[in-house]
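Structure tokens please, single chain.
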Amino acid sequence: MALIEWREEFSIGIPSVDYEHKGMIRMINQLHEEMSATPSRDTVSDFLGEIHALISAHFALEEKEMREMGYDAFDDHKDDHERLLDEIRDIMDEFEENDPGEFAEELSRRLEDWFTGHFRTRDARLHRFLKDRDAG
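Here you go.
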């Protein structure tokens, strides 16, 4: 069962960004599936590394788009990106210090909270900004 299901409310209206959001959800769901089985430390570490790299590249794209459109909350959104990348690195460190089987549920919960929390707050505001800009 998927940890995170794509919902249209996750869409911000920039096709390249939304495409990457869907890819991140797929990657997080794959990791969750791996963690639901008998996770190997190497496999999970590889997934976490890929998620971190994917998210870093995604944030760079999103920040480029926000700069180009003159997004009024750019600094706050960028600060949240930096905080989230720090959290992913913390998760990676904690995983390395814990038994994969015992950390599985915690890891899934934190990734889901992290991803959906950012969508509900920062990305939702960006979506509203785009809708207002396009309507005006």
